[in-house]
Description:
Elements: H1 5-26, E1 30-31, H2 33-36, E2 38-45, H3 55-72, E3 78-82, E4 86-92, H4 97-104, E5 110-119, E6 132-136, E7 139-146, E8 151-152, E9 156-163, E10 171-177, H5 180-192, E11 204-208, E12 211-214, E13 232-239, H6 241-253, E14 260-268, H7 270-323, E15 327-328, H8 330-360, H9 369-400, H10 404-435, H11 438-442, H12 444-447, H13 454-461, H14 470-490, E16 494-495, H15 497-500, E17 502-509, H16 515-524, E18 531-534, E19 539-544, H17 549-563, E20 566-574, H18 576-604, H19 607-631, E21 634-635, H20 637-666, H21 673-705, H22 708-742, H23 749-759
Parallel strand pairs: 1-15, 16-21
Antiparallel strand pairs: 2-4, 2-14, 3-4, 5-7, 5-8, 5-11, 6-7, 9-10, 10-13, 11-12, 14-20, 17-19, 17-20, 18-19
Helix pairs in contact: 1-7, 1-10, 3-6, 7-8, 7-10, 7-21, 8-9, 8-10, 8-21, 9-10, 9-18, 9-20, 13-21, 14-19, 14-22, 16-17, 18-19, 18-20, 19-20, 19-22, 20-21, 20-22, 21-22
Amino acid sequence: MSFSPTAWRALIALAVVAVSLYVALTTPARLGLDLRGGTRIVLETRDSPTVRADAAATDRALEVLRGRIDGLGVSEPSLARSGERRIVVELPGVQDPRKAAAVIGRTAQLTFHPVLGGSDGPPSRPAADGSRVLTDPDAPGSHLRLGPPALTGDGVEDATAVLGTRTGQGWGVDLSFRGDAGREWARVTGEAACAAPGDPARRVAIVLDDRAVSAPGMQNGVTCGAGITGGSAQITGGFDATAARELAALVKGGALPVPVTAVEQSTVGPTLGEEAIRASALAALIGLVCTGVFIIAVYRLLGLLATVALALYGLISYAAVVALGATLTLPGLAGFVLAIGIAVDANVLVFERAREEYARSARRPADLRTPLRTGFDKAWSAVADSNVTTLLAAGLLFLFATGPVKGFGVTLAIGVLASMVSAMVITRLLAEWAVRMPFVRRRPALSGLARTGRLRARLTRRPPRLMRDRRRWLGICAGLVLLAVGGIGVRGLEFGVEFTGGRVVQYAAERPVDADRAREVVADAGFPNALVQTTGEGAVTVRTGQLSNDQQERIRGALTASVGKVTVERDELIGPSLGSELRTHALIALGVAVAAQLLYLTVRFRWTFAAAAVVAMVQDVVLVVGLFAWLGKPVDSVFLAALLTVVGYSVNDTVVVLDRLRELRRAGGPVALADLADRAVAQTLPRTVNTGMGALFVLAALAVLGGDSLTDFCVALLAGVVVGMASTVFTAMPLAVILPSRYPEATGAAGTRETRARARNRSGAVI
Length: 767
């Protein structure tokens, strides 16, 4: 028994939709910290005098940190090594990064010392024999002289915060020792028990990072020489519940093999994350509805079926994200919504091609299956090329971006692949079913294929002759590029903290705050050079250089004292070394993007076409960067994501027109290349306009509803969509006509002479 291609498509579509529905209903999404709230800390290991901070040492440090964080009771923490020396720590629900950073970043050298007696001297570093003087934890004004350490924290098997299990008073930490450490503990306590009651030597000091945290004395029941057996002990000393848990986490985690330093830190409040989810979901819904209404108006019945396929695209994309365990971030949600426009593009390419095939037929066939099938077959090349270019941009984002922006690359790539399934399988299945219906066959105009469309009809009546003035268009585009470069040179770029290092904290006040008053408060708190901005909704944003957690808390306290209760909505800290590294990665990503697109297009097209597309792409990038320079908008990692998306979209749009030009050249005939370029533009312009409208609906919804964090992202993409459509016509196509004339491609001497003769033709090379 054999299945037809339609039956296979039906089985594949049914299986994909069924699996996606099951996964979406049974698997919860893994939300990033920017959506559910919490703290993200990136730690970098450093070389110690005895240990090199290589990958092995970083892995050991990661396991120590995991033990400490587990002891803090954080729900669903995430720790992962990034590169050789970095550890990414995500702590959902943790809103105060000071305590978390203090606990996980300490080296936590735990030692147990016999007390030799009291001391009148100040605290001191260890002497040659290991003895030292430290402050008495039970009497801050007194000091103890300690002997060499008898055992270290490596001998501690477990540490648990408990509420007075032995003493009946307050919180403490129960310790259990492993192996020889338990016997050593019995020896030390046995020697201490031999001292007279009240003698400091009857105590054993527990020292953590050069500070005596406890110095318990031996009770009368402890036998001289025998000590505390059983391999257990308890640290007491007036702890509250939080302090006991933190100490237990440090002791249980043990010592870090190498020092660590926080190079990045970000905190997002839970309210901000919830608002972002609601706003993005609403933007996705509005964008999908507006896009659906538009394509239904343009393509009628097939537009309605494409809208159904778009809804299934959303289901497939979401299921793929949760099935892969990918973390859904705020930029990731933007990528998910933006991919709706990509899914529309494939449908528009097919439908416009089918319309052309229908109009080209000598007799308007009642059977719409032939033009529809031809439309899918001929559109495949353009769909594949345009999606590959977008996947290249998404892959670069995944490789070079950090944090939430990496999630944008993931969801964008998933969205592109899902759009292929949606358009080329599901939409095709529904469309072929619809055009076979007798009701549609009797009324072909209902399908949407029999309508030429106003734009196409006008272009057919009066085809444009744009390539006649190709040098003028290139001159105008060069002028715009110079204007953009002038903005970069004159105004400069406002780099975000990701690229410069520093700290940005967004506070939320209960009532609107005057900007001058906020600046005065921050300056009085000791930060006169801080950049302070406010909004009418009570948000205060403070940007400074390097700022410690305690200094940030001082600013928050000063604002609270001046304007009422203030909470931290968003807090981002980037170290100077990481900022420099991210700038380098951004430049590398853009350079690799240009090279990758050039290489791919050279393989798929002739090199002159590839060069034309890449020049147009670089022009789009420069224009968007120049726009941000003139507007004074921040250039940060989210902007980088938008810029790489513009790269993909620009090449996507150009590839569609170049693909049509290549097809027209293959058709043969003594037609000038400039005229063929005009035909290619005219034949693909309806697709360009309709796809652009779909993207604009989605981006406008995100810009209005996505919040401050996505507004600049959408502005960059909106600008990229507009200049991308223009650069295809006014930069890429003129170059695609000029370059073959300057650099003819031929095989053999005869071919070379013929090609050169054609190159001298005033209207361009002929085929």
